[in-house]
Every structure is written in structure tokens, then in C-alpha cells.
Amino acid sequence: MAGLAVQSLAIATGVGATIVVVSNRLRVPPILPLLLAGFAIGKVGIVDSDSLEAGLLAIVSISVALLIFEGSLHLDRDTLHSSPKAVQGLLTIGAVITWVLAALAARFVMKLPWDLSILLGAMLIVTGPTVIQPILRRVPLKPNLHAALMAEGILIDPIGVIAAVATLELVIARHFAGADETGFTAALLYVKPLVAGTVFGVASGWLGKHLINRVPTASPGRDRTIILIGIACCMTSVGLSELAAPEAGLVAATLCGLIMVRAKHANVEPLQHFAINISTVMLGSLFILLASRFEVERLFNISWREIVFVALLILVVRPVSALGATVGSALSIRERWFIAFLAPRGIVAAMMASIVALQFSTYTTHATSHTDAEAITGHPAVSVDQATLDHVQNLETVVVLVIFVTVLLGGTLASPVATLLKVRAGKPNGVVIIGAHQAGRELAKALRDAGVPVRLLDSNAANIAEAAEIGLPATRGNATDLRWLESQASPDRFGWLLSITDNAELDHDLARWGAQRFGSGRGFIWSRKQPESGSSGVVFPWGRPLRHLLFQFDLGLARIKAFEADNRKGINAPLVTIAPNGDTKVVQADADLDDIPEDYTIIGLAIGPPDDQ
Q1: Can you give the pLDDT at residue 576?
Q2: Residue 451's pLDDT is what?
Q3: Strand, coil or helix: what is 251?
Q4: pLDDT score, position 319
Q5: Do the bridges between strand 573-578 and strand 601-607 make them parallel or antiparallel, or are there none, so unpaired?
Q6: Tens digits of per-residue pLDDT, 85-138?
Q7: 15: Cβ–Cβ under 8 A, 6 or more apart, which residues?
């Protein structure tokens, strides 16, 4: 048995990782290929997830916790604050509406018993971050819409899992012990995981954040230390939360990641990259394991009831939920309709379907012999009729069908629907500035005040601290690390790069990267030399070292500010223009000021005493 378990786990991991790599290469969500591969491997028999016995549920729970931890590490403050009311609505009102309407559809269309209908509704609260994220990478959406979908995909999972697991506990107690829990006991099943997960998640996240901040910058094993601190805090919080309440670990993992990513004086990028890698491997192996135990013939034996249920879920439940949850938010009606369209289910829904099937299978085995049921449930054992077991099997089948259909629709139609609804992001206007010295800070402040997204990057802790003090988004890190740079230059917000350092070679390298990342002509530097006529990539020349320019700023003899259309006096070098419609453009060094339309705002460099301006 041990050999078969090792064989199954190894093959699932290897095949799953391969499929994820190929899917990422093709820029498609990996869920459908993983499902199909799992069906095929299970049919052949080379993977037997049942050989893992009780270990399967443990592997599933820990893996999903790490997946959610990885997702929360990428939910920075800017993302959460982009559309807070929409996110709050989707996580509360939206979750309740989905639960209620899905349960009603299951009861009256699929003819499931009330308890199993409520259970199915809870299982379908979740969406799929493992599906949403590839779609969002492939289809650039407007910032508020992007943020709302990203946050919902990650934060809704713990809520849905707690609702489903607590409901499952009540259903198990009713069917296998004949016990109807009191209102207080039932409420406790829902509240206890939230409280336990919150306590341990916040505590571990706070501890991890402070430990990461204390890791010496010059430490040779700094990246490894940050990774170990992150995993230690996450897994410890998950374990302690599970000790207090089943599935509380997912809440803990989410909060732990959300807090740790806010470490101010350290770069958590190594932890983010490690979490991405390990979650990618686990995603593939999990789907292969869970899909391999599913009898694919069931999908060919579905009735019209299951088809109508899935149609109602897509065409009625999600639209009502999304539109109702986002009333009064900053999202436009077109953006709200796109949210109504996009709600693919993924690994968490598959996990819950498997847990329900495995739990009923386990309890049925015990209840048949009436030996251990009372010890397990705390009540005298009762028999379970075959109709209930058939309903449970049908419940698992319909969840797989929902995953298949919603992923297929989301993966194939997200792009044309975004175009139809006109919610695609335009060319991003944000500016990434390398160099958080005073010149960089003044430029960033002027851009921010004009409504342009901006991010300062610097390896100097003092520069970053000064930028943070005046409320500028600034991150400390090494700009030569292109993976880190890629993560900071979000493609849905930034479209320009300006490198202002005292290292000419570094400036040129970063400008080339900016042109590759954002498009030709979108990477700029400052230069000590006067550029040749027609040369590209130089925003302004300064005939002396950068420190001389910064000295002028210190003396008050240089400043960067916005010049409105009716007053352009004193501009020595135009840096950025902002059109009335918000379009931003970094200005070439040899640009003629007279060629800039009069209704454009100019962010420019002014040299000389303030009285002369």
C-alpha cells in the first residue's frame, strides 16, 4: 500500500507540474487540462488517490492553505484599496446571495434534500484564484475591476470553506447520528473557525513581519531566512488554528500573508517567489489526485436538472449576487456586469466536493457496522438510506460540472466579453521611477497630485523612508533583480519607466528593460551628456553628476512641479505631459515646448531661485 501511495503522489506531482508549465506557456488556465489529465490517469489506474487514505485530506488542506497564503502575499495595500466597497460587498452580501440562491436552485431544480442543498450552496460561494489570476494576466482590465476580482478570488475562499465545512458538520451529525444541533451549537461551528483563524493568523503575521524586518540587509543567507520565517509562521498558524477548529487554518493562512507582505523595511519578494513555486507544484498534484478518483462516466449520465442548475448558477445566481454586492461601489455598470460574468470555480471547490464525498464514505463505512459511529459523532449511530448517498454522489458530480463549465467559459470568453463591455485597461499611464532621492520624490509627488499612478524604487533605506513619510508608494529593493522589478511594475497600472541614478550603465539597462516591458519608447533615463538629435530614451540632460543636481534641490535652486496650460514660465525641462483625458507621456529631451498642446499639464524641472519662477 505504501508503494502505491508513493507511486500515486509522485506521478500526480510530476504530471501536474508539467501541465501547469505548458499551460502557463500557452497563457491558458491550467485547471481544465489538469482535470482531463486526472480523469485519464485515474481511468488507467496508475494513480490511486485512495491509497493515501486519511493522508489525502491532510495533503489537500495543507496545500490549499499554501495556495491561499501565496495569493494573499500578492494582495498589497494598493490592490485592496483600489475598490474597497466592491470587495467588501462581494465578500459579504455577494457570498450570502450566492449561498441562498444556489441552495434554492439545488432544492427546487435538482431536488436535493434541504440540508444537502444548503451544503452545495456553501460550496459554491468560492471562486477560483488559480483560474482568475491567469485570466487577469492575459486580459488587462481597468484597475478597480482588476483589484476587485483579484481580491475576491483570494479572500472569498476561506469564507466559503468555513461555511461549507460547518454545514457539513451539521449534515454529518444529522444523517449519521440523528442529531439536530441547537442554534447556539450550529452558530459556533461557523464562528469558531473565524475567531481561531483570525487570532492565530494575525499573531503569526505580526510576528513574521517583525522578524523579516529584523533580517540584516547584508546577510548572505537573507533570502533563505525570509523564506523560512514566512513558511514557519504560516504553517504554525495553520496547525494551531486547526487544533482549535476544523478549516480555521485557511483564515490563518490568508491573514498571515496579508500582514507579512506589509513588512516595511524588507523585501518579501524571495518569499513571494518561493510561495509561487511551491503552490504551482501543489496545484498540479492536487488536481490530478482529486480528479483521478472521480468516475468520469458520471458526467455522461447527468440529467437535464444538473444542466439547468449550472445554467441558473451562471445566468442568474452570479449576476444577481455580483450586481447586488457592488451597488454603490466605485465600479461602473459595465465593470459590474463583467464581474457578473466571471466567476470560475477551481481547486477549492474541487477540494470541498472531495471532502464531502470522502467524509460520507468514511462515516457510511463506520455506520454500517455501528461500531465507531457513536465515538465519531457523539450520538448513537443510525443508518443512511441509499437515496442520500446517491444525492451526495450527485452533489460531487455537479461541482465538477460547474468547475468544467465556468472555467471553459471564463478562459475562452473573458477577452471578448471585456472588449464588448469596454472594460479593458487602456495603455497604462503609471510611471515607475528608479531613484527615491529628492528629485525622484518631487517628481513622484507631482505625478501623484496630478492623479498619475507612480511607484518609487530604491535600494537606499533612508530614501525609501523619506518617501513613505510623505505618503508616496515606495519599495526598497535591488533594481538589477529583474524578477523583483517585474513584480513592482504591475502591467495594469504602469506604462513608463524613468531611471534616475548615478550609474549610467544601470540606467541604460533599466531603460532597455522598460522598453521591452512597456513597449518601444517607454523606457527613459537622465543623462550627463547632451543627447544627439533624434536619439531616444533621454528625458533630460544634466552636464554634471547627479549629486550636483540633488545639491541644487537641497539649496532650493531646483524643483519639480506641475505647470498648468496658462502658465509655462520657468520650465527648464519638461519631464511628463498629462493630457486632459489623463493620458501620460514622458517627454523626450529634445522635444520642443511649443509642440506640447496648450491644454496639457506639464510636470517640469525648474532651475533657479523660486522668486525667478
Answers
A1: 87
A2: 82
A3: helix
A4: 96
A5: antiparallel
A6: 888 899 999 999 999 999 999 999 999 999 899 999 999 998 877 788 788 877
A7: 37, 41, 284, 288
* CA dihedral over 357, 359, 360, 362, signed as positive or negative: positive
Which regions of the chain carry the CATH code 1.20.1530.20? 2-421
* Domain 2-421, CATH number (from 1.10.569.10, 1.20.1530.20, 1.25.40.10, 3.40.1350.10): 1.20.1530.20
| Sequence-distant (≥ 6) Cβ neighbours of residue 368 within 8 angstroms | 383
204-250 pLDDT tens trace: 999 998 898 888 766 777 788 888 999 999 999 999 998 988 778 88
The values of phi and psi at residue 424, to 5°, are -65, 145
Q: What is the largest CA-CA distance in the chain?
A: 95
Residue intervals of the chain classified under CATH 3.40.50.720 are 430-612
Q: Residue 469 pLDDT > 50, yes or no?
A: yes
SS3 585: strand
Q: Which three cell numbers stand for residue 203?
A: 499573531
Q: Per-residue confidence at 373, pLDDT binned at 50, 70, 90?
A: very low
pTM attached to this predicted model: 0.72
Write down the H helix ranges in 74-127.
77-82, 84-91, 93-108, 114-123
CATH 3.20.20.70 fits 430-612, yes or no: no
Strand partners for 559: 606
Cell of 209: 513581519
The amino acid at residue 398 is V
Element (H, E) at 376: helix 373-377
* DSSP strand pairing (584-586 vs 573-578): antiparallel
Please state, in angstroms and as integers, the Cα–Cα distance from residue 590 to each residue in 119, 502, 548, following that order: 66, 21, 22
3-state secondary structure of 499: strand
Rounded distance, CA 46 to CA 6, Å? 11
Cα 556 from chain centre: 43
- pLDDT recorded at residue 535: 42
Which has the higher per-residue pLDDT, 216 or 312?
312
What does 524-573 look like in DSSP terms, one character per residue?
A: EEEESSPPPTT--SEEEE-SS-HHHHHHHHHHTSEEEEEE-TT--TT-SE
Distance separating alpha carbons of residues 382 and 182, to the nearest angstrom: 19
Q: Are 546 and 526 in contact (CB under 8 A)?
A: yes
The H-or-E segment that residue 475 falls in is strand 474-476
3-state secondary structure of 495: strand
